[in-house]
Amino acid sequence: MRRAVGYYRHDTATELEPLNQLYSALRLYTNFYQPVMKLVEKTRTGSKVTKRYDKARTPCRRVLESHFTSKRTKGALRQEYAGSTQ
């Protein structure tokens, strides 16, 4: 959030509504469109550290591919994604 809003303190009532609108838009952008590479393995050989990353996917895609997530939750995410693309 600091990248989008900056490091200043925003604590007045007039700043609250625009910040809430920005947060809702950034939440959709971050979860549906911003891919993330997750660290899968980190091995140390002497002083050298080797990191291995998973394929870059969005947080929403990871949830949809998970077998721990219920069908109801997956359906709600798909509907929200469809609504955000229009």
**Which shape, going by the Cα principal axes?**
flat
Tell me the total number of β-strands: 2
How much of the polypeptide forms β-strand, as a percent range?
15-25%
Question: Low-confidence segments, ≥5 residues, pLDDT <50?
Answer: none
Secondary structure: helix percent: 40-55%
* Count of discrete alpha- or pi-helical segments spanning 4 or more residues: 4
Helices and strands, with pairings:
Layout (H helix, E strand, L loop, with lengths): L1 H4 L7 H20 L6 E7 L2 E6 L5 H7 L5 H14 L2
Antiparallel strand pairs: 1-2
Q: In words, what does this structure look like?
A:
It is a single chain. This protein is α+β, with helices and mostly antiparallel strands. It has 4 helices and 2 strands; from the N terminus they run H-H-E-E-H-H. The protein folds into 2 domains: 1-34, no CATH class; 35-86, no CATH class. The protein has a two-stranded antiparallel sheet. The model has no long low-confidence stretch (mean pLDDT 88).
Question: Could you give a short description of this structure?
Answer:
This protein is an alpha+beta fold and about 90 residues long.
